[in-house]
TrEMBL record:
Record GO terms (molecular function): dioxygenase activity
Keyword NAD: no
Domain of life assignment: Bacteria
SUPFAM superfamilies found in the cross-reference section: Glyoxalase/Bleomycin resistance protein/Dihydroxybiphenyl dioxygenase
Protein name per UniProt: Ring-cleaving dioxygenase
InterPro entries the UniProt entry points to: cNMP-bd_dom (IPR000595), Extradiol_RC_dioxygenase (IPR052537), Glyas_Bleomycin-R_OHBP_Dase (IPR029068), Glyas_Fos-R_dOase_dom (IPR004360), VOC_core (IPR037523)
Keywords, in A-Z order: Dioxygenase, Oxidoreductase
Domain Cyclic nucleotide-binding, chain residue ranges per copy: 77-139
């Protein structure tokens, strides 16, 4: 069994419009854009990162905004909902804010004894805010939302599966423990994790498999401290029979990927080196940063990538 995973690192999704995506996460949700770069495999498309002040692992939502992508079809084999942590008593503020901003799909509910507010982002992707009593993480206070109500980071995520059994076994192998079951959803937690340490499994045996597109989560990443730990995790996963990629340098972290039995793409990402490795912390996410292999494309990219309105 693994004991090195700290919780979530980041969640990466697909979007259609870079400006609409940027406005939603920086203005509506009040997150900080901590990096503006490009997709490693398709550099004509942005890769945008949003999180707390420094892009702390466990706070970062990232997007590939493909201008002509079709809308994804929700289904099994994917992350169905990403959940952010907010302070206790703040959901009234957020419900009023979402009404002012025209946010879709807003709905109050209670699950696992927690008050939560569900909502949809601009591409129909599903999110929730959950009130956390004792989340010590610092919020980003330099943006559109005051620190008293601001998002602290992820609480966790919900995976939709046709059969949860094999994924339950995987999560236990990764150090998660079954904590509770509510309305047929099984909750797994990392003891002593980074705050973004909850994974809920929703079993939907009659739901078809999801189709990737705008509004879909591409992959969900779990955090480990450093590259040495990551190598240990990789060897252990390979020894257990998982098909794991070699380590890939993503500039701000190192990544390995593998497909889970339920079809969800998992990543294990390092907490190092961080988003301030190539930008001063006061100016994260302002300049276009390119992977070294795409630096020769800078001139073309700066004229062809859509301008992002940061007003």
């Amino acid at each position: 069994m693994l004991d090195q995973i700290r919780g979530l690192h980041h969640v990466t999704s697909m979007s259609r419009d870079a400006n609409a995506n940027n406005r939603f996460f920086t203005d509506t949700l009040g997150l900080r854009r901590v990096k503006k770069t490009v997709n490693f495999d398709e550099p004509s498309v942005y890769h945008l990162y949003y999180g707390d002040e420094m892009g702390t692992p466990g706070s970062v939502m990232t997007y590939f905004p493909f201008p002509n992508i079709i809308r994804g079809r929700p289904g099994t084999g994917e992350v169905g909902e990403t959940v952010f942590s907010v302070p206790e008593g703040s959901l009234g503020f957020w419900k009023e804010r979402f009404a002012e901003k025209g946010v879709a799909g807003v709905m109050n509910e209670e699950s696992f004894g927690e008050k939560r507010l569900r909502f949809a982002a601009v591409d129909g992707d599903h999110f929730a805010l959950v009130e956390a009593k004792d989340d010590p993480r610092a919020a980003w206070t330099g943006g559109a939302v005051d620190g008293d109500e601001a998002i602290r980071g992820f609480a966790g995520a919900v995976l939709r599966l046709r059969d949860s059994g094999p994924t339950e076994d995987l999560l236990k192998f990764m150090g998660y423990e079954h904590a509770d079951t509510s309305k047929g959803i099984k909750r797994f937690v990392i003891p002593g994790g980074n705050g973004a340490d909850v994974i809920d499994l929703q079993t939907l045996p009659n739901m078809p498999r999801g189709d990737l597109g705008a509004g879909s989560v591409h992959h969900i990443a779990f955090a480990v401290d450093n590259r040495a730990v990551q190598e240990d995790v990789r060897r252990t996963l390979l020894d257990t029979g998982y098909q794991v990629t070699p380590v890939i340098d993503r500039d701000y972290f190192y990544a390995i990927y593998f497909r889970t039995p339920g079809g969800v793409l998992f990543e294990i990402a390092t907490n190092e080196p961080g988003f301030d490795r190539d930008e001063d912390s006061a100016h994260l996410g302002e300049a276009l940063k390119l992977p070294s292999q795409h630096e020769h494309l800078r001139g073309w990219l700066e004229t062809h990538l859509p301008d992002i309105d940061d007003r």
